[in-house]
Design brief:
Helix content: 25-40%
Oligomer: single chain
Structural class: alpha+beta
Strand order of the largest sheet: 1-3-4-5-2
Number of helices: 4
Radius of gyration: 15 Å
CATH class: Mainly Beta
Strand content: 25-35%
Length: 132
């Protein structure tokens, strides 16, 4: 199986840092249909696209709702959406850089999954051979 990284921020973060946490609405199964798909795989930027990296996939946590900001907050720093900068006007709103990253990540989940999945998985994806 292949893992598609259609969002440019997530894809660029993976390739630059060698690691990314990503949301997926399905927990892929192996050919027997029973065991979760984990371990070695490869990444691309689109369906039928060329390989951009060899990766190692680890399911980390089940997420009951893509808008579960508390859960997304745990992984936001390495999601590709974290910039370290507070949003404009954050002094007045109390929002910080993590809040901005979680908000952008939630929007990306909704845009890539238009049928609004009711649950999914957070995966840790590492580039094989990348210096950590």
């Amino acid at each position: 199986m292949v893992m598609i990284f259609g969002h440019p921020k997530v894809r660029e973060y993976l390739l630059e840092h060698g690691l990314v946490y990503t949301y997926r609405k399905n927990h892929k199964k192996t050919a027997d249909g029973i065991r979760p798909q984990t371990g070695r795989d490869w990444a691309t930027d689109r369906r039928l696209g060329k390989k951009i990296a060899d990766i190692y996939i680890t399911p980390v946590e089940h997420i009951d709702c893509p808008i579960n900001t508390n859960l997304l907050r745990k992984y936001a720093r390495e999601s590709g959406f974290y910039t370290g900068e507070a949003p404009y006007g954050s002094f007045y709103t109390g929002l910080g850089p993590i809040d901005l990253a979680v908000s952008e990540w939630s929007i990306a989940i909704k845009s890539l999954n238009p049928k609004s999945p009711s649950n999914g998985w957070i995966y840790r994806v590492e580039v094989i051979g990348a210096d950590s």
